[in-house]
Amino acid sequence: MRVPGSVIVAGIVATLMILAAIVAPAIAPYDPTDMATYNLIDSELPPVWTGEGDARFPLGTDNQGRDLLSAIIYGARVSVGIGGAAVLLAATIGVSLGLLAGYFGGWIDAVVMRAGDIIMSFPTILLALLVSGLARALMPDGGSVGWTPFILIGAIAIHDWVQYARTVRAAAMVEGAKDYVKAARVIGLPGRRIMLHHILPNVMSPVLVIATINLAGAVLTEATLSFLGVGMPPNYPSLGTLIRIGNEFVFSGIWWIALFPAITLVILVLAVNMVGDHLRDRFNPKLRGRS
User: Fold this and answer.
1) pLDDT tens for each residue of 235-291
2) Mean pLDDT over all residues of the chain?
3) Domain range annotation of the chain
4) Sign of torsion, CA 85 18 235 248?
5) Cα(273)–Cα(191) distance, integer angstroms
6) Per residue in 108-130, pLDDT tens?
7) What are the CB-based long-range contacts (under 8 Å, 24+) for 127-130?
8) Of 3, 190, 175, which Cα lies nearest the Cα of 98?
9) For 21-283, which CATH class?
């Protein structure tokens, strides 16, 4: 299957944005998490090309005098980090439970699938808000910078693991009926070894596709939670936090605080989604057969 030019461009854009987020401390002009660098005299400066801006702040500043470009780079780092960790956690849980359900079947399969059905009956954002609210209520310092990322990761992953479990379960049931798995059972290999060394490598292709698509969804979910005020605090912002802060000033004519983080979020999610959609089509046997 030929890779479209748009997918190549999307892959390059997504890679560059993720790399920029990873090395944010090295490329950001300022450290937006260091409150000692804030200067209220520089607050609400417009982008430099408007004529009223300052060359030190190409995209302008927010209401605290924080460089918006640096805040966006660091915000992307937070959003990508939380989204990537949530995908990794969801994939680990989902693949493990899917393997167990598909290989052993019986009551294990019933419990895992019914638990997944219950979780999938809740909307993603509603369930994430519920988990985040409970965690903050049970933990005295749940709203601190140290604990908030872990709460967000768990709140996002608790809904996404079901998709991995269902996919791996179906693939494991198919693989379990094949001769090589039956032969492994006959010679007495333990179930754990059969699942990890024989079945798991053959079901990883759809898992990687789902993980790529879910990365964009996890980043967007984190941004939504932060926009609703249950995400990262303003002194350590994500893209959603920056959009929430800027939304308070849009009708005052200070449009850049919300616009540039929103554009960054849209481009990142769109690029990752395009790559994920291509991978899904690439590993779809029906489409591959037509091509």
Assistant:
1) 788 888 889 888 888 888 888 888 999 999 999 999 999 888 888 877 765 555 444
2) 85
3) 21-283
4) negative
5) 36
6) 889 999 999 999 888 888 888 88
7) 127/155, 127/158, 127/159, 128/152, 128/155, 128/156, 128/158, 128/159, 128/221, 128/225, 129/155, 129/225, 129/228, 129/230
8) 175
9) mainly alpha
